[in-house]
Every structure is written in structure tokens, then in C-alpha cells.
Amino acid sequence: MNSERESPTERRTRNLRTLRWGLLAAALAFGFGFALVPFYDVMCEKIFGIKPDLNPAAATSCTGVDLNRLVTVEFETSISADLPWTLDSEKKTVQVHPCEPSKVVFTASNRGMIGMTGQAIFNIAPGRASAHLTKTECFCFTEQHLAVNETRDMPVRFMLDDQLPKDVNTVTFRYVFNLLRVDLAADSVAYHAATGPELTLKSTDPIQGIAHVAHVR
Fold it and tell me: In angstroms, rounded to a whole number, what is the distance separating the alpha carbons of residues 58 and 11?
């Protein structure tokens, strides 16, 4: 029986081996966490054409505004058929200098009879301009929830760098809002309160976002 007992030397060896494996696992987990950040940035940049949450001065080769060149930026918006919202930009086009921080305000309104959450998808044309675009603020970064009759101003801050190809004189930003979900619980109550005692909510079409009502006698 005594021959099967672990000696102090064997116990120390086993403990050291366990400690080494634990330290290695911790180091790998720590490195993996850091690796996710650039992976997310690459996916956003390559798929959606954006560089999120970056300081323009640090994210580009810009050393100063290029006053000798102007680039026209156009804004196009559309809404999916199942989302009763409107989305407009304060300006349809702007002219910007490379390396010049710019801001354009978009306004979204919920014209439906129930609160909804949407997500905007962004793309840029021509596609090769995406490598020269930095966005530091955009409603397309996150989901947007609008209650019944709510209107929201949403600024977009961006910059085109001075390495944008010389033959690219016009860049188009396109935003398409899509329905993610409807809020039946909270906004049904809000709708009933807004319509007064003569109307009561019977049912809601989650696809069209239209509340069907009937008079209460």
C-alpha cells in the first residue's frame, strides 16, 4: 500500500505541471480576447465599408486638410417594406475636402402604430472608396428603437482620407433600414393611451406594424 502513495517529489512535479498548463491556458485566453478586437474591425471595414470608433487622425495618413481637392458625397436612403419609417438626410449631397471631418444629420420617424426596432445597413460606392473612409459616429453602428410617432435626429460623422484615388470625385453613402422586431407589450399600452377611450387595441400586425382598432360603445 505504501508503495502506491505519491512521494513529495512526485507531488511537486505534478503541481508544477498543472501550474504550467494553467498559465498557458490563461495566456491563450488573454491573447484571444485581444485578437477579437481587430477581427471585428476588419469585418466591419471589409463587409460594411466602415471603420468604427476610430480617431480620424490616428486611423488615416492625414496630416492636414487637402484644400486643393473637393469630393462630392451623395446620400441615399431606403426603408424595407415591412418597416413604416421614414429616413431622410438634411442634405442630399455635400462637398468635402480629403482629411476634413464632416457631419451630416439624418432624421428617422416612426409612422406606424407600434414601436419598432430597426437596423440600418450601410454600403459605399464605389467600393474601393471604403478603404479611405473613417466613420466615428453612425446610427448604423447600433440598433435603433423608435416608439410610436417618435422622430430622432441621428448625426453621422465621417472623413475621407487623402489617399482616395484621384479619379474618384463622387462617393455615395447608401443606408437601408430593416425591421428587427416590434415591441408589442410596451407600445400597445402607449397606443391605447394615445388614441383615447373611444378606441381600443384589438390586434397588431407585426409585419406591417399596423394596429387594428375598433370603436368602444
Answer: 53
How is residue 136 written as a grid cell?
466615428
What domains lie within the chain, and their CATH numbers? 56-182 (2.60.370.10), 185-215 (no CATH)
Q: Tell me the pLDDT tens digit for each residue of 157-173.
A: 999 999 999 999 999 99
Contact 91, 68 (CB under 8 A): no
| DSSP assignments along 30-74, one per residue | HHHHHHHHHHHHHHIIIIIS--TT--HHHHS--SS--TT--EEEE
Bridge partners, 175 (sequence order): 77, 122
Tens digits of per-residue pLDDT, 59-86? 567 889 999 999 999 999 999 999 999 9
Task: State how far the alpha carbon of 61 is from the alpha carbons of 51, 99, 162, 163, 164, in Å.
Answer: 14, 9, 7, 8, 11
**Coarse DSSP helix, strand, coil percentages of the chain, rounded to the nearest 5 percent:** 30, 35, 30
Which alpha helices (DSSP H) does the chain contain, by range? 8-43, 56-59, 184-195
